[in-house]
Amino acid sequence: MSKVKVLNPPQEFTDSLTFFDSALFHQVQTTGLFKDSKQFADATPKTSWSKIYHEFERQSAQADFNLADFVTEFFSLPEPIELEQHIVHKTVAEHVEALWPVLMKQPDEQGNNSLLPLKRPYIVPGGRFREIYYWDSYFTALGLLHSGRWELVKSMLLNFIQLQQSIGCIPNGNRSYYYSRSQPPILAMMADLLVSSDTETADTQFLIQCTEAMETEYAFWMQGAEQLSQPYEAHRHVVRMPNGGLLNRYWDDQGTPRPESYAEDMHAAADKQGDNKTHFYRNIRAACESGWDFSSRWLADPEDLQTIQTTKIVPIDLNCLMYKLEVLLSNYWGKLGEQSKSLEYLQKSEQRKQNIQSYLWNTELGFYMDFNLLTQRQSKIISLAGVLPLFVALAEPSQAAAVASRLKNEFLSVGGLITTLCQTQQQWDAPNGWAPLHWFAVKGLQQYQQDDLALEIMQKWLSTVERYFQLNGSLMEKYNVQQIEFSAQGGEYEVQHGFGWTNGVTMAFYKMLEGESAQA
C-alpha cells in the first residue's frame, strides 16, 4: 500500500493560515461585518500581509478606527458567481448547457489568498461556492459527460491528484482552510467514469496514474490501522471493531473554528470550555468532511447541534464508498498485471463487506444504519445513507428488497426522497432532498432490478427540479421535497443557486430516461 503523506500545509498558503489565526481576522468575523463568514475567508489582500498587520495594529489603536473602512482599503472581496438568470431558457437541459461555461474556471494563477491554485480548468458548484468541491465533482461529472465534456472531467480529476500530491489528501475544496479534511472518497468512481469510456481505455499511463492516486487515498483513510488492537479503538479515520475488522469514520485533525464559518462556530461553542470546545470544533469539521453538514445523523439530540458527535459515528455511506474503492483497486491492479495487489484489495473488500453486514445491517428494521461508538450499538437515525450498500452492490437481494420497501413507504414524498426520517432545522434532514442521494438511490435500486421504484423516484425528482425552474429560472443546491411550493431551508447559509451536482444528476437522469424510451 502507498504510504500516506502527513497532512502538511504547503508553504505557498501558510500566509493565509496565519491570517486565519490573526487578531484582524478574529475581529472582523466576530463583529458581524459580514453576514457570511466565508466572504472574508475568501478575501484577497491588496498589499503585503506584513503591511496589513502593521497598519491594523497602528490604526485599531486610534479612537476613530473604522473596521469596515479598513477592510475596504486593504482587501478585495469576492463576488458570488453570476449565473445570468436574466437569460431565459425554455428547458432545464438548455439551462444546464448554458451554465457549464458560467460555472467553469480556467487554471488559477498563484495568489496570496486562500485559494489553492489548480493547473487545469474545473467546474464550481455556484453561488458562494467559488472553488471546486471534492465529492460534488463526481455528480457534476455525470452531467458533463452527458454534455460530451470528457476533457473537462479529466482535468478536474487531475486537479484532485495535484492537490493530493501537494497536501497529502484530496481536500474538501481548493481553499487553504480545507486542507485538514477531505470528503467522501469518490476519486475511484470518478476515474472509473473515464477509464470505462472508449477515450481512456487504451491509455495505460492514465490508468496507472489513477490507480496510484486511489491507493494513496486509501492509505489516507486507513492511516494508523496497524496501531489499533482493542475493540472500538480508533485513530483518525479508522476504527477497530470487536470482531477485529476495520471500518472508517469521519475526522479532522484540527479542533478550532472553521475560518469559513468562524462566527457561527464561535457562537455555537461559546458555553463550552477546554477539551469540550476542542471536541465540538473537531466534530463540526468532521461533519463537513462527510458532506452532510449538518444532519441528525451526527447529533446525540437530533434537535441540538451542541450535541454533535460525528467522530463517534461509523457511517454506512463512507464504508460503502471505501468498499467500492477496494473493489476498484482490485480491478485496476488486475488490469495492470499486479495480481498480488489485486488479490490483496479483493480480500480487503470482502472483509469490509462482512463488517458492514455484521455491524451496519438492522434485520428488524430491514435497513442499513450508522453505528454509534459511544453506545456501542446502531444509531436510531434512519437516513438515505442506507441506500449505499445497494449502490455499491454489496447487499443481498432480500436486503435490497427490504431497503426498497422502506424507501417507497417512508422516504418517497411528492417531490422525491427525503434525506432522513427525522425533521429538524438541519439541512440534511427532512423535508429536504438532495441530488447526490437521489443518484445513489436510483442507481442502487437499478442494481437489484427495482426498476419501477427507481423510475418513480427519477420522475418525481425531475418534476420538482422542473417546477422550480419554471417558476424561478434556476436550479438549486437542495429542494423541499415534501412541500414543493416552498424553497428548501436549514443550514448555515441561504440556499444556493447553480448548482453543480443538481445540474449533473438531472442531466444524467434525462439520459437514463432517453435510454428507456429508446428501448420501449
Question: How would you describe this structure in keywords?
Answer:
520 residues, mainly alpha, 3-stranded antiparallel β-sheet, 16 strands, 48% helix, 7% strand
Extract low-pLDDT stretches. none
Number of DSSP strands? 16
Q: How would you state the average pLDDT, rounded?
A: 94
List the total number of helices.
19
Radius of gyration from CA coordinates: 23 Å
> Structural class of the helices, strands and pairings?
mainly alpha
Q: Give me the side-by-side strand order of the main sheet.
A: 5-6-7
**3D shape:** globular
> What fraction of residues sit in β-strands?
5-15%
- What summary fits the major beta sheet? 3 strands, antiparallel
Q: What share of residues is helical?
A: 40-55%
Query: How far apart are the termini?
Result: 47 Å
Explain what the structure shows.
- By secondary structure, this protein is mainly alpha-helical.
- Among the domains are: 1-183, no CATH class; 382-520, no CATH class.
- Helix content is 48%, strand content 7%.
- It has a 3-stranded antiparallel beta sheet.
- A hairpin with a 2-residue loop joins β5 and β6 (238-240).
- α7 (134-146) packs antiparallel against α8 (150-167), α8 runs antiparallel to α9 (187-195) and α10 runs antiparallel to α13 (316-335).
